[in-house]
Design a protein that fits this description.
The protein contains 14 helices and eight strands. The protein has 340 residues and is an alpha/beta fold.
């Protein structure tokens, strides 16, 4: 018998070497990239929808290449309102403060750079001083040569910067729920993450809007506490605040909060105009004794109004008291007595 000299071929080179395995890390990377892209597309859709559903209610000014959105109501002496971090004109509007103030004043309310419908160019570090400069340049375009200015929260820092830089322009200041002196704030590190280069852009377009949307009720409970969120706040366009661009702007202001307080901390005595400082006694974000009360002690002509049973959002939960503070600053003794 002739020996079988033909050996069986290896099973088709072991089925083409069992087809080259795709590395697991490549699969994981592809899944991650797909998830990131999906989140970015979802957030872009929500942002575009928010802008369609909430068109600009006011007019626009071009100030040195920055497109500012503003609303104007009423007549009389000028009053400028500056909103807090993460907010926009609709906060003051839904609170009823604009309509109340318009009975006495010509009210001008700005969406600060990066919020609402205002631009926020990336080539500028938007400190309170930088924002004060843009606001000051905008006002002559509206035929305003002086005004009473109210700033809430981060807007209070912009109001202070405006008063320090242009004291002759400011008739009086109302500083509501402001942060004036640097303190240890571990929460600021987390809040400021979306403002970081590259990583911040990735976060603000992917995870941050989704997380913010999920924790929105808890955030509102904290900033409004101990008061409940009023029904009128339903007029605030939440989805506008959750756009990637506005989340990034808000994060940048969080990151600047402590450094800016450090720069201003020894300059408050230079404010010589009438000043009313107003804050909720149960603010859950800052200690008003080490902030508003300390500021009052350093500005001799200031008045301090502590609003009992209220937290940070006094423009919403104590609107009449905020209006009274405006009248105290702008009107002198006769209007003060009428307001009280």
């Amino acid at each position: 018998m002739t020996p079988n000299l033909v050996r069986p071929l290896r099973p088709a080179l072991t089925v083409q070497r069992r087809k080259a395995k795709v590395p697991s890390y490549a699969v994981a990377s592809a899944v991650a990239i797909g998830a990131v892209a999906a989140m970015a597309l979802v957030n872009r859709h929500f942002a575009k929808k928010a802008e369609r559903d909430n068109p600009a209610s006011g007019r626009f000014l071009d100030v040195g290449g920055v497109r500012l959105h503003y609303v104007e109501r009423g007549s009389g002496d000028p009053l400028v309102l500056l909103d807090g971090n993460g907010s926009m004109i609709e906060d003051f509007d839904s609170s009823g403060l604009i309509d109340l103030a318009a009975k006495h004043f010509r009210v001008v309310v700005f969406d600060r750079p990066g919020f609402g419908h205002s631009d926020r160019p990336r080539n500028v570090v938007w400190t309170p001083d930088a924002q004060a400069e843009v606001i000051k340049q905008a006002l002559p375009k509206l035929n305003l040569s002086s005004a009473t200015v109210l700033g809430h929260s981060w807007g209070a820092s912009v109001a202070v910067a405006l008063a320090l830089k242009y004291p002759d322009f400011i008739r009086g200041l109302v500083l509501a729920s402001g942060y004036y002196y640097p303190t240890a704030r571990p929460d600021v590190i987390a809040m400021g993450a979306p403002s970081l280069p590259v990583v911040g852009d990735l976060l603000s377009h992917t995870l941050s809007p989704l997380i913010s949307r999920a924790i929105w009720p808890l955030m509102m409970k904290k900033i409004f506490g101990p008061q409940s969120v009023p029904t009128k706040f339903e007029g605030f366009p939440k989805e506008m605040a959750l756009r990637p661009s506005q989340i990034r702007a808000s994060a940048a202001e969080s990151a600047l909060m402590i450094p800016d307080a450090f720069l201003f901390r020894n300059r408050y005595a230079d404010l010589k105009m009438p000043v009313v400082i107003i804050a909720g006694e149960q603010d859950r974000l800052i200690d008003i004794d080490t902030q508003s009360a300390r500021l009052h002690s350093e500005i001799p002509q200031s008045r301090l109004h502590r609003v009992a049973g209220n937290g940070r959002m006094i423009q919403q939960t104590a609107t009449d008291e905020v209006m009274s503070a405006i009248l105290k600053v702008a009107g002198g003794p006769s209007k003060l007595e009428a307001a009280e």
